[in-house]
Design brief:
27 strands, Cathepsin D, subunit A, domain 1, 4-stranded antiparallel sheet, binds 2-acetamido-2-deoxy-beta-D-glucopyranose, single chain
């Protein structure tokens, strides 16, 4: 860690790229991982859910978006503070394992959404450098990148529900503040977003893409931090925002110890999503299999996404699961409430006494879900709704509500995801 502190000092006084690269090699030699704090960010009464969409998933997620608009409680992201540039400018970005690009709202804005904190100003950074469109491999790692007449790498990156960022790909210094308090810097390629629209709110200054594709933060940092691996512990909905949790990168981020279960990552053509195989979900002691008698179970039928709030399941599986959850709750659900829509909701003065659900992932990885992870109170007193919805796609999403209070590790080199039950508010 001393190494990285030294590196940072040297980085701050450096003003030309060659020096910063020199310093970077110091960090590289150390090849150490690091941890940062995460901030829970719920907006119960604002922006609609942000759903992921990219490439061939676009259509699927647009459909999901429509289905989800009723889950007004279903918002919640986790933010991570990073700084870009020299001198560093702070950015709070949404952590998103379902997309790759790291980007921030960037001056001058053609069309930015409202943001409370100052936007990133590349003019004030001595390390900002647009990457050349023709000669840069990274520019073409985004299939939507186009070269401008001045050889600038213009990108467009879309998410579900029509959210979009457009701008210029650039090389810049990214600085993390480790949980030990030290600044740690690297050079990465990120999106300087001049035209950003959609369901982002005024505290979200950009997005930290942590997917498996080549342009994601973890793919870019992997060689410098002892491997492409990271872990996070997300705090539950309605946690006091002053309580932070932890995200770790590289060596030291492994999820170890008693009670760890692991499942295999399934490689598909789309490298971004973390596909896993969900065999079924038990409600109490009753197993509801993912597939029915006429289907075969396909590998990689779910992906794990910190940027999507609910669990989203194929319709047939979802319907069978909801029937079983209803069976096991000794209360009448709320019916025909236009504000709540079709979701399964209950009204109670106390905490909801729901059954334990167990997600059975391939390889014997059983992940227990309590009502904290499965029933989210919408902004209506005493109402709890099942934090799941359905899709016409045959691939589902394991969203962030279900991920809370688990330390979840993604090891891209080994191709596994690990889960360990953890109180993320006390990390
Ligand atoms: C590239 O991005 C710049 C800055 O946002 C914009 O002014 C220009 O029109 C874009 N060019 C193309 C070809 O999209
Ligand atoms: C910004 O994005 C919107 C929506 O895609 C588009 O209509 C508009 O032309 C873009 N503006 C610029 C300057 O690129
Ligand atoms: C689901 O598919 C698997 C593998 O194709 C099969 O062995 C199993 O019997 C199926 N489950 C049900 C409930 O039909
Ligand atoms: C099984 O699921 C498929 C699609 O998910 C559905 O079309 C079919 O009707 C289901 N079969 C049974 C027997 O429920
Ligand atoms: C399931 O999906 C259908 C079709 O998209 C939608 O009409 C319905 O509201 C969804 N159900 C729930 C509970 O979200």
């Amino acid at each position: 860690m001393t190494n990285t502190a030294t590196f940072h000092t040297c980085f701050v006084i450096a003003s030309i790229l060659s020096i910063s690269l020199l310093c970077l090699s110091t960090t590289k030699a150390s090849n150490e991982g690091f941890s940062v704090e995460l901030i829970r960010h719920d907006h119960p009464s604002h922006s609609p859910l942000m759903n992921k969409a990219f490439g061939r998933f676009m259509r699927q997620f647009n459909e999901i978006d429509t289905a989800q608009s009723a889950i007004t409680a279903g918002k919640g992201h986790h933010l991570m503070k990073v700084s870009f540039g020299n001198p560093p400018q702070d950015i709070y970005g949404i952590i998103d394992t379902g997309s790759d690009l790291v980007w921030a709202q960037c001056l001058p804005c053609d069309n930015c959404y409202k943001q409370i904190n100052p936007k990133f100003d590349p003019q004030k950074s001595s390390t900002f450098k647009e990457i050349p469109c023709d000669k840069s491999k990274q520019c073409h790692q985004l299939d939507t990148a186009v070269c401008s007449s001045s050889n600038v790498c213009n990108y467009t990156y879309g998410y579900g529900g029509g959210s979009l960022t457009q701008g210029v790909l650039a090389q810049e210094a990214i600085t993390f503040t480790s949980t030990q308090g030290q600044p740690i810097s690297y050079n990465i390629v990120f999106g300087c977003g001049h035209n950003n629209t959609g369901t982002f709110n005024d505290q979200e200054m950009g997005l930290i893409g942590l997917g498996g594709g080549p342009i994601s933060l973890i793919s870019q940092l992997g060689d410098s931090i002892g491997g492409k691996k990271f872990s996070h512990c997300l705090t539950p909905f309605y946690t006091d925002p002053h309580i932070t949790s932890k995200m770790s990168f590289g060596s030291g981020s492994e999820v170890l110890g008693d009670g760890v279960v692991s499942t295999t990552l399934v490689a598909k053509q789309d490298k971004t999503p973390y596909f896993v195989t969900l065999e079924g979900i038990s409600v109490g002691n009753t197993l509801v299999p993912f597939n029915n008698s006429t289907q075969t179970l396909s590998k990689g039928n779910m992906f794990i996404d910190s940027g999507t709030p609910p669990i989203i399941l194929p319709e047939d599986f979802y319907n069978r699961l909801v029937v079983e959850v209803r069976n096991q709750i000794q209360m009448e659900p709320i019916e025909n409430d236009p504000e709540l829509g079709p979701q399964l909701c209950y009204k109670t003065d106390k905490n909801l006494e729901g059954p334990i659900l167990t997600a059975h992932f391939d390889g014997g990885a059983d992940v227990e879900l309590t009502p904290t992870q499965t029933f989210i109170p919408p902004p209506k007193d005493g109402v709890f709704c099942l934090s799941m919805t359905n899709t016409t796609s045959d691939v589902g999403i394991y969203g962030n509500f279900a991920q809370v209070n688990y330390l979840i590790g993604f090891d891209l080199d080994k191709g596994v995801v690990s889960f360990k039950q953890t109180d993320c508010t006390k990390q």
